[in-house]
Design goal:
alpha+beta, five-stranded antiparallel beta sheet, 15 helices, Alpha-Beta Plaits, 16 strands, seven-stranded antiparallel beta sheet, 3 domains, homodimer, Uridine Diphospho-n-acetylenolpyruvylglucosamine Reductase, domain 3
């Protein structure tokens, strides 16, 4: 409960209707894209300007009230669940494109804008903003920045981090900071811009971003390569890169994913293959033709059973949409879908997929795997039922072992989804106790009273190893 | 003076001959590439392994002795001058290439390796590491990482920061931290990798780096465009980008630079033109041909008086070498050369060059300007004489106004050289008092006793505005 004196101050800042604490507002902001997590906030606020955000933070910091800033809350790490209550700050009203600068190839936006709306606008001007998280139709640029989101084009073009040139952000105490600018180079002090990207709302509330744009590729070509054997598909990924070709997109789907995606999208994919690679190259047409030809012969020599090159953009878009729909398609199978994010050096993806399958068998759980093979970024996805606590427990044990396997293969616990609540107990596996201590120091420098998205990134308890009989209380069933 | 008990401990760690405190060692490590700065250390140490670095730091931190880690000290911001004495740690013995991973396109190196030696090795394997600071024949990968160095290929390929995937570093207390990895994506916690890149030796001692490699471009073409009018040259830069062409290199030299470079390199450049653009494109040969043709017609329509396309690689290399030699060539003119680093949005470079010329006239000092026009990263370079204190004072006032002008044009005080000692008083102009406070908090999180390169980045005093009668004592004449 927030003191009515405080809520009155908050309403004065944003206007009566933009602070809500009715049950509907609280419940609808108590969860995010992550299954089985829920926690009610005390209030929900919808600022319109950076100055409002600053004024809100002045009030909240004086009263030591936690705040969770969010866009559309499509994250998959429990990153925007208000686990310590307080105020959820929804950024959707701050959704303006402030400028597109054609001479400098930059765009400056408020962070509440929907990513796909931004990219459509940019593309209509003949420009290109490559980061394309699968959530882009609903997620915001601010959310993408908070999570340093990846996407299907990460291999060639990098992720959100690579396109953020400057930020405006509000600190916990309400002070406004501006980093970077329309500058291709800036080494004036520590790189606060890149530090804020991926900081998951725990260091500052990001209100504006200056983004780098690039010229769009002149042509594109999309192909599928199908394999009866997973290792051959994975080896093809490494071989393409070894041949000094960096495709724009290089995705993998395993058999379980293929079947579900095909049932959903009706593409006529064969249901008996072990894996499909979805490969896209873009650039000048000669380069694209040459690369696709070479990729085709690499696929053949690595034993692809069938290769299909999309005949036109329409067919290509169908394939890409199918891949993007993998999560949705899998979600139809059973009531609860848990999509994870283990990432390894790309040379180890075959080992990783096999380990995932072994672990799924060991715990007798259903896990389909797809992901950005070129980045080594896999999304093992469990289909389960939150009401079956015993099965969910096995799923959690399986994921714990999957994270362990990723680390042991030189990988990381999260490639693009963030740490949030779900991965916090495992962060030490990747970065060590010393790394956590340094990160805690950084957190303290920005947010001394731990008001910004508290309870995320840093866990109270670190998982030392898999303990079968442990009880996990943090995941409770959402609203159903 | 360091207590003999401590020096004995340090000698035990590295071996008798790898800790020195004889006058020759102290004097030769009392300055760096920055003119007019000198301060004697108390000792110089040459570690061979990460564990030695960790052991050294354990000893130094117990005794609260400052340490300045350095590669070849070619930086231009006073970044490696040991202004608070203590120990200079020279990283040159840690110069091994630990691995080149062809499947993952990464290289892991000790940070004391010379950049050009590393790139030659990589290129001999048919791979490409784009960052190419002009100092690369003498500078180290560790120095490049500490300063987040740029280079001539920054426009298309980015800077050092964009190629560092993982780091091993030793903290002030001797603990070892490992960040990132052979991972194209990793969002496990705050991005310590990118935070350490560009941290100028103030947060940790970087001992190993995992670097991203890319396929080399298949062909290259180099051209010069000459202009009787500076504005036309600068406008051409924006026009090329607006035409959605991102050249690999897009450099500018003003008349003063052209004359000096030509006298030095005997290229037969015309001495009467106002500016020359040096443009290089790389990629597949069809793309390069098409881009160069289009660039040529943009140059023509913007009023270039003469355009020359290099006929072969030899001629092209000659042009690039000439540009790289600008600093050396200018250094022949007078005893002291001060090369600065003002950076603006690329659309503002004409305004910036004109402001530089106005300021040079106002203070009656000689400033030649060249730089990475495509990045908006200009290097106004003053030729002066350190023994003429009155003139040097005017040069310093001129640079102060140049930094102010850069900021007022939406730019920054340093694009690729770092803050170090020289820019520290101006950092607040770029990042504000709030930004400085956050950076100080980060510094404290890593290095609570301020032992790592103390006196850098953060200034005791901030320049509020240009004050004519101030006395600056920090710059004293080096060893001559």
């Amino acid at each position: 409960m927030i003191d009515p004196i405080v809520t009155r101050q908050l309403r004065q800042i944003v206007g009566e209707s933009y602070y809500r604490d009715d049950p509907e507002a609280l419940v609808t902001h108590s969860y995010d894209g992550t299954p089985m997590l829920q926690s009610l906030p005390d209030g929900v606020i919808y600022p319109k300007t950076t100055n409002q955000v600053a004024d809100i933070m002045k009030v909240l910091s004086v009263h030591r009230i936690p705040v969770v800033s969010r866009g559309s809350a499509s994250n998959l790490c429990g990153g925007t669940v208000p686990v310590q209550g307080g105020v959820v700050m929804v950024m959707h009203r701050m959704n303006r494109i402030l400028e597109v600068d054609q001479e400098n190839l930059t765009a400056t936006v408020q962070t509440g804008i929907i990513t796909a709306e931004f990219t459509s606008h940019i593309e209509s001007m003949g420009l290109f903003y490559p980061p394309d998280p699968s959530s882009m139709k609903i997620s915001t640029i601010g959310g993408n920045i908070a999570e340093s989101s990846g996407g299907l084009r990460g291999l060639k073009y990098g992720t959100t981090k690579d396109y953020v040139l400057g930020l405006e952000a509000v600190l916990a105490n309400g002070e406004i900071i501006r980093t970077g600018g329309k500058l291709m180079k800036d080494v004036a002090g520590y790189d606060l811009t890149k530090l804020l990207v991926g900081s998951e709302g725990t260091l500052a509330i990001i209100t504006e971003a200056t983004l780098k744009l690039i010229p769009p590729p002149k042509s594109k070509k999309t192909m599928l390569a199908m394999y009866m054997d997973l290792y051959s598909a994975a080896r093809t990924v490494s071989r393409i890169i070894e041949h000094r070709i960096i495709p724009a997109t290089l995705e993998i789907m395993d058999n379980a994913t293929i079947r579900v995606v095909d049932d959903y999208a009706k593409l006529g994919l064969p249901h008996d293959v072990a894996a499909i690679l979805l490969i896209e190259q873009d650039g000048d047409s000669e380069t694209v033709e040459r690369d696709i030809d070479q990729i085709r012969s690499i696929c053949e020599s690595e034993g692809a059973s069938r290769i299909e090159v999309a005949e036109d953009r329409e067919q290509a878009e169908k394939l890409l949409t199918a891949r993007r729909s993998a999560f949705t398609a899998l979600a139809r199978l059973r009531p609860t879908t848990i999509l994870e994010d283990a990432t390894v050096p790309r040379s180890r993806i075959a080992d990783m997929v096999l380990r995932i399958n072994e672990i799924a068998n060991k715990y007798n759980v259903q896990i389909a795997t797809f992901g950005h093979a070129g980045d080594g970024n896999l999304h093992p996805t469990a289909t389960t039922d939150a009401r079956d606590h015993e099965e969910v427990h096995r799923v959690e044990l399986a994921f714990e072992e999957i994270f362990e396997a990723a680390i042991s293969l030189g990988g990381t616990i999260t490639g693009e989804h963030g740490v949030g609540l779900v991965k916090a107990p495992y962060l030490e596996w990747k970065i060590g106790a010393v790394g956590i201590a340094v990160m805690r120091g950084i957190k303290l420098a920005f947010d001394p009273h731990n008001l910004l998205n508290p309870g995320k990134v840093f866990a109270k308890e670190t998982r030392k190893r898999v303990v079968i009989d442990r009880v996990r209380t943090s995941r409770t069933e959402p609203n159903e």
